[in-house]
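Summary for the lay section of the report: proteins are chains of building blocks that fold into shapes. Here we show the chain for Outer membrane porin F and then a coded description of the shape we predicted for it.
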Amino acid sequence: MIRALPLVMIAMPAWAVEPVLPPDATETFTRVEALGSHRVATGPHDGTLPVEIAEGAVTRRVWRMAASDGTLAIMGPLRDALEADGWQVVFACEARGCGGFEFRFAINVTRAPEMFVDLADFRYLAARRGSEWVTALISRSGDAAYVQTTEVDPDAEVEEVTGSAPAAVAPVAALPQGEVATALREVGHAVLSDLEFETGSAALQGAEYESLAALAEWLADNPDATVALVGHTDAQGGAAGNLAISRRRAESARDLLIRRHGIASGRLETHGVGSFAPIAPNDTEAGREANRRVEAVVTSQD
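The coded shape description reads as follows.
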C-alpha cells in the first residue's frame, strides 16, 4: 500500500491517477491548485522544448522508494496502468533521449529534498485523456528512486492542498576514485568527488586530483568517447549566480584535463546547472559540501 501524507487540512480530492508503484513507496509531497498551469513536454529538447501549456486544476504528488530495480521497472507498470485506464501516451523518453540537461530544466520539477533528479538517469512520460493531461517523472539518487506525477484537469473542482513529509535523504556516498572508470562504463556517469570547492568559488582546492587522472585514463582507453562535465552548487546564493559558478566549476575541471592530461578539447563539453540537481539536503554543511561538485557524464561512446 502507498502511504499517504498525514495532512491535517481538508479532505483530499479523488485522484484521477493512482500510480502503480512498489510496495515500499512513500508519498512525500502533495500539492493541489484549484487553477494553475503545467508545462507538458510533447517532444525532446532540441534547441527548444516543444510543450503544451495545460491549464486547470493541477495536482502534483511525489513518492520515494528503493531504487534496486531501476527507473524502467518503475515506469513500465505506471505506463501500463495509464493506458489500461484510457490514457494515450503522447511522449515518453529517457535522459539522453529527452534532451538531457536542457530538458530537465525546461520542465516543472518539485524542488529537493522531496524530488531528486539524476541528470543521467531519469525517465519522463506525458499522456492525455480527453481534456486531461498527466505527466510522470522518475529518477534516482543513491539507493532511492523518486516518482513525480502531475495531473491537469480543466473541468475538476478541487480544494487547494499543500503538504510535505520530511524526507530523510542521506547524501550519496563518495565514489572511490578507483571506481570512476567502473561507474562510467556501467552507469554512464560519475561524481568527481575529490574536486572540492568553497561556497561561491570555482577555484579547485588541491594540486592533484585522482578522479581527473582516472577520467583521463578512461578517455584514453575509450578514444571515441566524449564526456560532459556538469558543475553543481549548494543552495546558498541566487539562481543566476549559482548557474554561473557551476559552469565555471565544470570549466575548471575541463581546463585541468586539457592542460595536465592532454585530453582533446573537443571531447569535453561543460554545463552548469546551479543548485537544481542536489544529491544531498542543503540544510547541513556536509550536505552543502556534497552538492558543490562536478560530475562526468558520458555523452557518446562507440
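Put simply, here is one thing we learned. Residues 177-300 form a domain with the 60s Ribosomal Protein L30; Chain: A; fold (CATH 3.30.1330.60).
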